[in-house]
Write a structure and sequence with these properties.
A five-stranded parallel β-sheet has the order 3-2-4-1-5, with helices on both faces. A five-stranded mixed β-sheet has the order 6-7-10-8-9, with helices on one face. The protein has two domains: 4-126, 3-Layer(aba) Sandwich (Cobalt-precorrin-4 Transmethylase, domain 1); 131-226, Methyltransferase, Cobalt-precorrin-4 Transmethylase, Domain 2. It starts with a strand and ends with a strand. α2 (43-51) links the parallel β2 (31-34) and β3. With 227 residues, it is of the alpha/beta class. The protein has helices at 20-28, 43-51, 71-90, 109-118, 131-138, 178-186; strands spanning 4-9, 31-34, 59-62, 95-99, 122-126, 150-154, 168-172, 190-196, 204-206, 220-226. The chain contains six helices and ten strands.
Length: 227
């Protein structure tokens, strides 16, 4: 009998935001999988270890998921990841694959999930708190009200079209393009706040466009609202 793959959302950074279901499955599964070459350097693993220290004793499958837009490299990494995961499942072991935030929102995990599912293995996605919900809560404000629309925009691909939409706009993964994003925001009649590393020890909060730095880390999220 083959094992089952669980995609476990661990939330944005605060270990106390792990769900009870996530904690239970992490403890119950035979194997932990992480998106990285070394588990100790993987953010998702570091978060979970604070809440479930016993994972240090569990078998861990380290799955390299390079940050690239190169389609060929991505295809190769997804294929290699599938082979690693499927071998463990074929041995009858259940896997808890840890992923930041929610597995359904711009997650690298979902590509492995799709391949494993298409191959006929049993899979389940376990929702985690999305980063934009955690950021809004940390800013102590609502995300949308009444008839307002919410738009989640992957900033590394450009924000021009997304910023034309009305309502609250969430800019994710601006990272290396932070300077360009900030310049575009300055030209618009909007208010913006950003949190870098929400819920982590090195968390930084910026309450205005002017405060946002030209360079910021990968785990930076901007919430843009109408004036």
């Amino acid at each position: 009998m083959t094992g089952k793959l669980y995609g476990i959302g661990v939330g944005p950074g605060d270990p106390e935001l792990l769900t009870l279901k996530a904690v239970r499955l992490i403890k119950e599964c035979d194997v932990i999988a992480v998106p990285g070459k070394q588990k100790e350097e993987t953010v998702a693993y570091k978060i979970v270890k604070q809440a479930v220290p016993e994972i240090a004793e569990k078998e861990c499958l380290e799955v390299d998921m390079p940050m690239t837009k190169d389609k060929e490299k991505l295809a190769q990494s997804h294929k290699a990841a599938f082979e690693k995961v499927s071998q463990v499942l074929d041995a009858g072991k259940n896997i808890a694959f840890l992923t930041l935030g929610d597995p359904c929102v711009y997650s690298t995990y979902i590509y492995i999930h799709q391949r494993i599912q298409q191959a006929g293995y049993e899979t389940e996605i376990v929702s985690g708190i999305p980063s934009f919900c955690a950021v809004s809560a940390r800013l102590n404000q609502g995300l949308v009200e009444r008839s307002e629309m919410l738009h989640v925009i992957p900033s590394s691909y450009g924000i021009e079209e997304g910023m034309k939409l009305s309502g609250t706009r969430v800019l994710m993964k601006a990272g290396k393009k932070m300077g360009q994003v900030k310049e575009q925001l300055k030209k618009m009649n909007v208010q913006a706040s950003m949190i870098e590393n929400c819920g982590m020890e090195n968390e930084k909060i910026y309450h205005s466009i002017e405060e946002i730095p030209e360079e910021a880390g990968y785990y930076s999220l901007i919430i843009v609202k109408e004036q």
